[in-house]
Every structure is written in structure tokens, then in C-alpha cells.
From TrEMBL:
GO BP annotation list: DNA-templated transcription initiation
The species this protein was found in: Ligilactobacillus ruminis
NCBIfam families for the chain: FliA_WhiG, sigma70-ECF
Domain RNA polymerase sigma-70 stretches: 201-227
Name of a matching Pfam family: Sigma70_r2
Protein name (record): FliA/WhiG family RNA polymerase sigma factor
Signal peptide per UniProt: none
Length: 237
């Protein structure tokens, strides 16, 4: 009877596994969607075994974290973001920062390409890498330290958090993030809102905007890069 009940519980939460798996980028990895889904099911079973109802946390919230964690841990172990690609991302941020310090304004993609000596296609690859890192390796974290982490979700979704010195610091960083997002283009803001607030996948966003999935990935990556630049700029003032 216990096994039957457990099987029914697993079936009940399979749509949750599907939602989580759909939001994990598999570009630059050796995985297919079915692989992520199967890993997610293992994460779901693990969540069922370890869930502690006395902590008053909704099971679905806890399970989503365990499912996502299981998938991300597996993908990270076999990530194809090479040192070369990471070097390109770092070079991009350095070139962008140097240009903006020199020109005292936001720079264009063409100016970045000229500075780095790369093509439009190569810049697109860099934005893809940034999008991948934000959705998997960095789990959408824009900046963090040992004490607190601020995510895009924190600015798009209302949340009530306990007061205290750390929370006040987090609130300040959230304000910086809100201001940074306001400086994005309307389309970039829409992509972030759909991705983080509405939990839409890149495929779903592509259908809404009537563009390719690759284009959505690049818009998302460019937005993350801009936000990081805006935050660094604010911290230097």
C-alpha cells in the first residue's frame, strides 16, 4: 500500500518536474530534455524522502528546489562552458567596462565588437554563454557575496522578508537592481519578466516575440550583461 501511495505522489508531482526541467538551458551541454526530466524525477524522489513537514515549508516549494538542484548539479559536472568561452565572457566584460569608462555612456554592440576584434556571430556566442551561466551555473544570480544573494526574481516578485541588518543591505541591493532593470529596453524587460516572473521557457518567449530561441537567448544574455554593468557603475559612484 505504501508503494502504491508513493507512486501516486510521484505521478502527482511529475508536472512540477516538467516545469523545472523546461527552465534549464541545455545548450552547450551533452544533455537532451529527457535526460534532465529523468534526473529531475530522481530529485523529486529525494525530496519526498527528505521532506520535513514540521518546518512548515510547502512541499512543492521544497521539491522544486531539490529537483532544480539535482538537475543543475548534474549539468554542471558535464558543462561544456570551456575555459576559452569563459575567457571570452571575461574579455567582453573588460572591454565593455573600458569603453564605458572612456566614453562615459552605454556602448553599442558594434563598439564592443570593434574593441574586441570579433564578429556579430562571435558576440552572439558570448551572449549565449552569459545566458547559459545565468540560467544554470549562476542560477540567475546577478551578484552575491558571502552574506546575501540578490536575484532577478527578488525585483519582479513581491516578497515579505524579516527585518535586520542583513535584510536592509539586501533591500539596498534590490533597489540597485530595480533601477538597473528600468534602464533596459522594453523588449529586454519583457524577456526578463516572462522568464523570471511568468516562468516562461526560452521556447515560449520566442513564440510570444515571434523570434528564434537563439535570439531570445541573446536578448536575455545582453540584458544580464547590461544589468551587471549598471550595478558596477552604481557602486563606483
Amino acid at each position: 500500500m505504501y508503494e502504491v501511495d508513493r507512486e501516486q505522489e510521484i505521478l502527482k508531482y511529475l508536472p512540477l518536474v516538467e516545469r523545472v526541467a523546461n527552465r534549464i538551458s541545455i545548450k552547450n551541454t551533452e544533455y537532451e530534455y529527457d535526460d534532465l526530466y529523468n534526473i529531475g524525477v530522481i530529485g523529486l524522489i529525494d525530496a519526498m524522502q527528505k521532506f520535513d513537514s514540521s518546518k512548515k515549508v510547502p512541499f512543492e516549494n521544497y521539491a522544486a528546489i531539490r529537483i532544480r538542484g539535482a538537475i543543475i548539479d548534474e549539468v554542471r559536472r558535464h558543462s561544456k562552458i570551456s575555459r576559452y568561452k569563459m575567457g571570452n565572457v571575461n574579455s567582453f566584460y573588460q572591454a565593455k567596462q573600458e569603453l564605458e569608462q572612456e566614453m562615459k555612456r552605454e556602448v553599442t554592440d558594434k563598439e564592443i565588437m570593434k574593441k574586441m576584434g570579433i564578429t556579430s556571430s562571435q558576440l552572439g556566442d558570448i551572449y549565449d554563454s552569459i545566458q547559459y551561466l545565468s540560467s544554470v551555473s549562476l542560477e540567475s544570480t546577478l551578484y552575491s557575496n558571502n552574506d546575501e544573494t540578490v536575484m532577478v526574481q527578488d525585483t519582479l516578485r513581491d516578497s515579505k522578508a524579516p527585518s535586520g541588518e542583513k535584510e536592509l543591505m539586501k533591500q539596498e541591493r534590490r533597489k540597485e537592481l530595480v533601477e538597473a532593470i528600468k534602464r533596459l529596453s522594453e523588449r529586454e524587460q519583457l524577456v526578463l519578466s516572462l522568464y523570471y516572473e511568468e516562468d516562461a521557457t526560452l521556447k515560449e518567449i520566442a513564440a510570444i516575440l515571434d523570434v528564434s530561441i537563439a535570439r531570445v537567448s541573446q536578448i536575455h544574455g545582453r540584458a544580464i550583461a547590461k544589468i551587471r554593468g549598471y550595478i558596477e557603475e552604481a557602486n563606483q559612484e
